[in-house]
Amino acid sequence: MTKQALLVMDVQKAIVDRFTGDDGYLPRLRGAIDAATGAGVPVIYVVIGFRPGFPEISTRNKIFNATRSAGGFSGDAMEVPADVAPRPGDIVVTKKRVSAFAGSDLEMVLRAGEIDSLVLTGIATSGVVLSTLRQAADLDFALTVLSDGCLDGDPEVHRVLTEKVFPHQADVVTVDEWVKSVS
């Protein structure tokens, strides 16, 4: 029997604020979180975070060094928005790179919970979702991507990934379709 977990990845205020074009995103995500909780599916939040002074960020890392230089990793900007915030009992994993597995203890948490199937949501489709999907597939997890539970700054990139790339390694469904399957 499969045991799945819902991953809510990089849904932090500073990141969500860059994607203001989809006002329905957080309510849809809340629907997936509520359905998971109601069905006894663990909800695991994956957030990006660093120590004071950012010793984990190399000057050679273009993405994270630029964000650090712009002050993008500070204060409450890195908190999960209240609309979808973790509840007591939800697990929060802190990562240090793009993939949810990179620099985190996510794999250990999943293996300890005997989880073998992941449901992926997050921002951005071409970032954390793509990187995590590829690594999770290589680790032999069964995968589902909630297409409208992911956002990307480029709608065409999101479409190509969810319609053409992800289906090679994952089932791709909408939040509503997944909610019906776990209810």
Automatic annotation (TrEMBL):
This is Nicotinamidase-related amidase. Gene3D superfamilies: Isochorismatase-like. The keyword Membrane does not apply. GO terms for molecular function: hydrolase activity. Keywords: Hydrolase. It comes from Actinophytocola oryzae. InterPro entries: Isochorismatase-like_dom, Isochorismatase-like_hydrls, Isochorismatase-like_sf. Coiled coil: none annotated. Residues 5-177 form the Isochorismatase-like domain.
